[in-house]
Amino acid sequence: MNSVFESIRGLGFRRGPKRLVAGICGSLAEQSGLNVWLVRLLVLISFCLPVVGVAAYLVAWAVTPWQDGSIPLEEALGGRRDGA
């Protein structure tokens, strides 16, 4: 299971520093080069899709690393907690 989390960290995708809630939109905006408010609007619109938008956001929240590299799902499963 550790290799899964290490491969997620290796993608270079981190929660953005311009976060309002969980940093997912800020991170998507930084990676794609789009305006953060445009990404937030698109994510909000995706929430109108039955279950798909919210479920995708929750999955992204669970597996997207923080700036220090820690992953919420990994910590919930009792994995790495030191952030290094």
Structure write-up:
Helices cover 55% and strands 0% of the residues. The protein has one domain. Helix 2 packs across helix 3 and helix 3 (36-46) crosses helix 4 (52-63). It has helices at 2-10, 24-32, 36-46, 52-63, 72-76. The chain is built from five helices and no strands. With 84 residues, it is mostly helical. The model has no long low-confidence stretch (mean pLDDT 77).
Summarize the SSE layout with pairings:
Blueprint: H1 2-10, H2 24-32, H3 36-46, H4 52-63, H5 72-76
Features of the shown structure:
single chain, 84 residues, mainly alpha, 55% helix
Please report the total strand number as a whole number. Answer: 0
Low-confidence stretches: none
User: How many helical elements?
Assistant: 5
Radius of gyration: 13 Å
Oligomerization state = single chain
SSE sequence, one letter per element = HHHHH
Overall 3D geometry?
globular
Short description:
Helix 2 packs across helix 3 (36-46) and helix 3 (36-46) crosses helix 4. The chain contains five helices and no strands. 55% of the residues lie in helices and 0% in strands.
